[in-house]
Amino acid sequence: MTTTETPSYPMARQCPFSPPDEMREIRESEPVTRARIWDGSTPWLVTRYSDVRAVLADQRFSSDPFRAGYPHAAPSRKIRQTRMRPSFIMMDDPEHARLRRMLIGEFTVKRTEKLLPLVEQAIADLLDAMEAGENPTDLVQAFALPLPSLVICHLLGVPYSDHAFFQEQSHALLDLTAGEEAVIAASDALMGYLDRLVDDRRRSPQDDLISRLAARIDTGELEVDDVSSMAFLLLVAGHETTANMIGLGTLTLLRHPDQAALVREGDDATVRSAVEELLRMLTITHIGRRRVATEDVEVGGTVIREGEGVIVAAEAANRDPEKYPEPDELDVTRGTNQHVAFGFGIHQCLGQPLARLELRIAYPALLRRFPDLRVTVPDEQIRFREQMAVYGVHELPVAF
Ligand code: HEM
User: Nearest residue CA, atom 22 of ligand 1?
Assistant: First the structure.
């Protein structure tokens, strides 16, 4: 293939609510193809639902960014992934499994449901504050960001009063256009902060996740660095993702008043179905899961050679018409849809019960409290997060 025939990845979106049109064409015509990325290399791009699940479930594909051939998403990601202490999202089994296992009990559906009163209270408080505050307001700052941030801080034992600090670092770390210095500064600042917190909880344990992990240092199961890296991963993954699902999800519902009405007035099953449908449609982790083959593997009739990189495009898989009838239609009654927005296989999102809990309470509570909720600017004036590792909206001006 010549350079001109090889598509570039990522591609520009035509509509902010859908993956690029070119992705659809590629999925139809060449579902396993080469794509050119920022550094000139041409890893494989996998776009069909069945192939995406097959790659993510196959441990012959590694998540280790230190391996030659790993397709980094941007220079900033490469710096972050190769200069920082790795967390288990970047590791393969058995080390990945060893570390993940220590957290599984913290994130079961049963354990997470115990957070329901806390989540409901946080939502009620934020909506009260919004009602008493300025109108119009920015929904991201007033509601979408503080909710997951409060919840993850409570769970980890990170003081929420420091939220401005870690939200700023986390933002810098997810910015695909960030320069080397900014990435290193943000990463060092956040890691230093967490190192101090881990040290503190080791000496004076409290009833929180960091204290429980820190207790494993003295048993020799974990190093201090391991605990800080795990806390880092949870802190960043725990608030930016859910926050953007709340922001972009609300915007999407407001553009489909019939669907918003189903969420506002629907029963628990309808709301749960709506959450899954929004996760599928929006696939906010929009820069592809990144993998590298550790041996030759056939995917959808194409042999991917050992050492070759793979971009696993969940955003394309989640719109595959072979899996989903009318894939581009928002249908909040679609039911369990087996989307891959939380990934699949051994790295499948650990925090998904928590994200689901927050979303299924947040959307209806917001829509019920403010039945006249509306966006005050046209789509063209909304800043979508195309240059961020997690998609969504930077701000969402709303009136209510
Ligand atoms: C709507 C919200 C969320 C979305 C869309 C999302 C998405 C994802 C995806 C796609 C992966 C797979 C990464 C891969 O295959 O390389 C992942 C992994 C992960 N997520 Fe989430 N996530 C969300 C919320 C959360 C929350 C709330 C937490 C923590 C409390 C969390 C913690 C993690 C962790 C620790 C991993 C790594 C799992 C592993 O490598 O074994 N996520 N997430």
Answer: 349
